[in-house]
Design goal:
The complex is a heterodimer of chains A (421) and B (224). In chain A, 49% of the residues lie in helices and 15% in strands. Chain A has 421 residues and is an alpha+beta fold. The chains are: A alpha+beta (421), B alpha/beta (224).
Chain lengths: 421, 224
């Protein structure tokens, strides 16, 4: 038989028992619908993470800390007493007090591959006072040249800048600007508490405005002022750090540098690692959700097998006739297998159409309710390639499910099936 | 042409087996008309199944132009190309049109839609049902259905046309008409006609009558 005739005949056969075919397609469509939504949700989150963190995969920056024993040895009450070993034992609360010393920083500088060490000053700001008298929280971070925010307006900070900041696009009201563009050159009035309890005021000028992002603080302070504020807030004017940012000498590979750090008893994670870890977690969630959907698809597969077995029984005579007219066993097998695959195709297509409708509705509702104000997120993202992939996978699965009924059909004895005496 | 040599067909295991055909040898000449008669259980259907290649003989062989149809050639393909079978129960696809039913053998062999529709129409002209081509097969009378089945059997100009109790499901008038049609086709197309029947009147119209009883040929008479 010609391929086109096989497909048209199999498709025609599906219309013979309309209700049964409809119910089987419905089961497949429901399975496909749940699979598409769960994969679409994972894809949506992945895209969001990629949008927010994607640029960090190329950032040459490592978060480096001292390697410690990761458990709470000696600190948990249900453990037996531990013998102190100055070479390997952490302090009882090392997870809190494992600050880098000057000696550690010297060692880190000498690790092969260390290019530049950036100290992550974390100024603690009480509030920012807007020109209209409103006090706003002012979460902030220190400018790190290796990881500058993505600017929309204005100019980037430099190492030499003093009294300047970068502001998130949404923070124009803090400087009394009507829109983010006009906030350039305006002054941010911040207040912070020094270690001695005295509250100080500092006026900083907006140099640039950047695209808001998931992990970037809304205010980025130049290094000079961040250092000054942090020092004024620290004991003995000496801020302590659990970790530092390090840029790598590009002549040393990522894995070699991590190995060098390890040998010097440091642990380094690149920004790309963080991105990959997040993606792995989402992939894991995606697979778990898909596995649940797999149960629904499995149930529909049983329906496909049942439908085809019934079709074989109902069409025994027809199979016998086909064989008597010269059809080979392989032709009969192909007709039923294609019928199974078409069940998967039409059911999958229906499920995808439903899920695309649901995608639009859910994204609209989400953007107007619980995700209102979250920039760049599309909760469900069923891309055309994902949709086609799902339909083909479902068709392939139902094709496989149809193999046993198709073999049974191909083995129908034409003599028995055409007997009427 | 078609030659059956020392064919036997045994069903079941040896200890309690049943011999449906015993040492059957026959030769069918090209263009001849033949009747195979006998009571129920005489072995007529078994013989039909073996000579169409739907069943295998336990002993002996069936030759077509000197070749063993069960061993030397692709039996399914051979049957499709050389044998036209007309069944007592028509076996039409009720939801399909008349022309689609007639064209089915060509469809199974991969002939293009245009060609098979042209040839199906020719076959329908041969059986006098051209005007019913687009009708649904289910809408026809019994006699018309059997004509459609005959058109389906002759669509690829088979060299052998086998009719298995072709009038068994028809009234006398329709049955008469169908038998006339089969003999007309034998004349016009030159196909060897083998009618399996228990109707002596039909058998008498054939050049040769082969009678089976208990799986054996008890008589093989030819008109001079």
């Amino acid at each position: 038989m010609k391929v086109v005739d096989i497909f048209s005949t199999s498709n025609q056969n599906l219309r013979r028992s309309k209700l049964r075919t409809f119910l089987t397609l419905l089961a497949i469509a429901i399975g496909t619908f749940t699979l598409a939504l769960s994969l679409g949700l994972g894809q949506g989150l992945k895209n969001y993470i990629s949008l927010q963190l994607g640029k960090y995969k190329d950032v040459n920056l490592y978060q480096v800390e001292k390697t410690t024993l990761s458990d709470f040895s000696g600190g948990i009450g249900n453990k037996d007493p531990q013998i102190y070993n100055p070479n390997s034992s952490p302090s009882a609360a090392s997870y809190l007090t494992n600050f880098l010393t000057n000696e550690d920083l010297t060692n880190l500088r000498s690790v092969n591959g260390t290019n530049n060490i950036e100290l992550p000053y974390q100024p603690s700001i009480l509030y920012a006072l807007a020109p209209n008298g409103t006090k706003y929280l002012a979460n902030n971070s220190t400018f790190i040249p290796e990881n500058p925010p993505s600017l929309i307006y204005g100019a980037q900070l430099t190492e030499a800048d003093q009294g300047q900041i970068l502001l998130s696009q949404k923070y124009a009201p803090l400087v009394g600007a009507s829109d983010s563009k006009s906030s350039i050159g305006k002054t941010l009035d911040i207040f912070y508490k020094q270690y001695n309890g005295k509250i100080s005021e500092l006026k900083l000028t907006v140099k640039g405005v950047y695209q808001p992002s998931l992990i970037q603080a809304p205010i980025v302070i130049d290094k000079y002022d961040a250092k000054n504020i942090a020092e004024s807030q620290a004991i003995n004017s000496t801020p302590q750090f659990n970790f530092v940012f390090v840029s790598r000498n590009l002549n040393v590979t990522d894995s070699a540098y991590k190995s060098n750090l390890k040998n010097a008893k440091f642990t380094g994670r690149s920004f790309a690692d963080v991105n990959n870890t997040l993606n792995s977690i989402i992939t894991g969630v995606q697979i778990s959700l898909a596995a649940f959907s797999g149960v629904a698809i499995l149930a529909s597969i049983v329906g496909v097998i049942n439908t085809l077995f019934m079709a074989v029984l109902e069409r025994t005579r027809e199979i016998g006739l086909f064989r008597a007219l010269g059809a080979k066993k392989g032709t009969i097998f192909t007709l039923f297998s294609v019928e199974a695959a078409l069940l998967g195709f039409w059911g999958g297509l229906s499920g995808i159409i439903l899920s695309l409708g649901a995608e639009q509705a859910i994204n609209l509702i989400a953007s107007r309710t619980f995700l209102k104000g979250v920039e760049g997120i599309k909760l469900l993202n069923i891309s055309p390639s994902l949709a086609i992939f799902i339909i083909l996978v479902i068709a392939a699965i139902t094709f496989v499910a149809g193999i046993i009924p198709a073999i049974k059909a191909s083995r129908v004895d034409p003599i028995e099936s055409l007997r009427y005496e | 042409m078609l030659e059956i040599k020392n064919v036997a067909r045994r069903y079941g295991k040896k200890e309690d087996s049943f011999l449906a055909l015993k040492d059957i040898s026959l030769e069918f000449d090209k263009g001849s008309t033949n009747a195979v008669i006998g009571k129920s259980g005489s072995g007529k259907s078994t013989l039909l199944h073996i000579m169409t290649g739907l069943d295998h003989p336990s002993e002996g062989e069936v030759l077509f132009d000197g070749k063993n149809i069960h061993k030397s050639i692709d039996t399914d393909k051979w049957r499709g190309q050389n044998i036209g079978i007309v069944f007592q129960q028509f076996f039409l696809q009720p939801s399909n049109s008349v022309i689609d039913n007639v064209a089915l053998p060509l469809k199974l062999r991969g002939v293009s839609k245009k060609e098979r529709e042209q040839r199906a129409l020719q076959a329908l002209i041969s059986v006098g049902l051209k005007d019913k081509a687009k009708n649904n097969a289910n809408d026809l009378s019994g006699g018309q259905k059997q004509r459609v089945a005959i058109a389906r059997a002759i669509i690829d100009n088979p060299s052998i046309l086998i009719a298995d109790e072709p009038t068994g499901n028809l009234d006398t008038e329709s049955g008469e008409s169908i038998i006339n049609l089969l003999f007309d086709l034998n004349k016009s197309k030159g196909a060897t006609l083998i009618i399996v029947t228990h109707d002596n009147d039909i058998a008498k119209r054939c050049h040769r009558i082969i009678e089976l009883r208990d799986g054996k040929i008890v008589s093989d008479r030819s008109k001079k």
